[in-house]
Amino acid sequence: MTSPDPTDDHLVIEPSVLYVGTPVLLLSTVNDDGTPNLAPASSHWALERMLVLGLETDGQTARNLGERPELTVNFPSGDRWEAVERLAAVTGRDPVPDAKAAQYAFEPAKFDRAGLTPQASDLIAPPRVRECPLQFEAVVRRMTPGVAAGYLMVEAEVVRVHALPEVVVSGTDHIDPHAWRPLIYSFRHYFDRGPSLGWTRKSPTPGHPSPAEAPVPPEIERWASFGGTWEVAELAAGSATVRLCRCDSGEEVSRITSSEPGFVAWAALQEAR
Ligand SMILES: Cc1cc2nc3c(=O)[nH]c(=O)nc-3n(C[C@H](O)[C@H](O)[C@H](O)COP(=O)(O)O)c2cc1C
Fold this sequence. Notes:
Number of strands: 17
Largest sheet: 7 strands, antiparallel
CATH topology of the largest domain: Pnp Oxidase, Chain A
Structural class: alpha+beta
Bound molecules: flavin mononucleotide
Order of helices and strands: EEEEEHEHEEHEEEEEEHEEEH
Mean pLDDT: 92
Number of helices: 5
Number of domains: 2
CATH class of the largest domain: Mainly Beta
CATH architecture of the largest domain: Roll
Helix content: 10-25%
């Protein structure tokens, strides 16, 4: 162990939770009697088509998934936080497990309780939540007990994605990050997300506020109008370099480096294509 660094301006603290800030999910599963359950959650991450969820073992959601491995994962936007909160002190589990009895009550009609509307899924039995702009249908591929008792890691494959047109870049399969405003759960408070700050070079939707706003820069358009070709040579945070080439041989004639946001957005869009 090293001795404390006198120049370190951080405090050492013991926070009661480490919920740094993730979007809220509403998980719908099917109960034994065929009715839907609905539960708020936030512990999750996604890689490609797989979602990994952190679920308490004593909830009705985990119990349902053990029996019927299908769920919808619905993402409310910020303005729905009160509907989510109406589900915060209820469980679909009857009787309520002892560990939860002091803080939770049994609620068989979670959709009604939240004031939300079930909407039939395409491929699986659990319904979606109509009011959520983004909805996934998913099938559980594996459930693994956590290292500590009390939670499970649920790996679920997303088999269908539904999105309202207003959060999709028109004519594409991309969610428009400028239009999409997830409800964020951070240290047990609800937040809307803040303004856009930038984008990563692999973004399929570079530009601001949308790719449609990244028109071909005039210097590239002029080069192309003479029959020249071009390619993006370098893309870094806030700057792009484009190689201008002869149309016949492909030989490089010159380069343009620019930090003009429209130019960088356009170059990023070419890279993403
Ligand atoms: C905003 C929010 C986020 C939550 N995140 C999780 C979570 O990630 N995993 C979990 O198991 N429970 C989470 N909970 C608690 C569950 O919603 C709660 O245990 C509920 O009883 C589950 O319902 P069920 O028993 O009907 O499945 C969260 C609750 C709220 C309000």
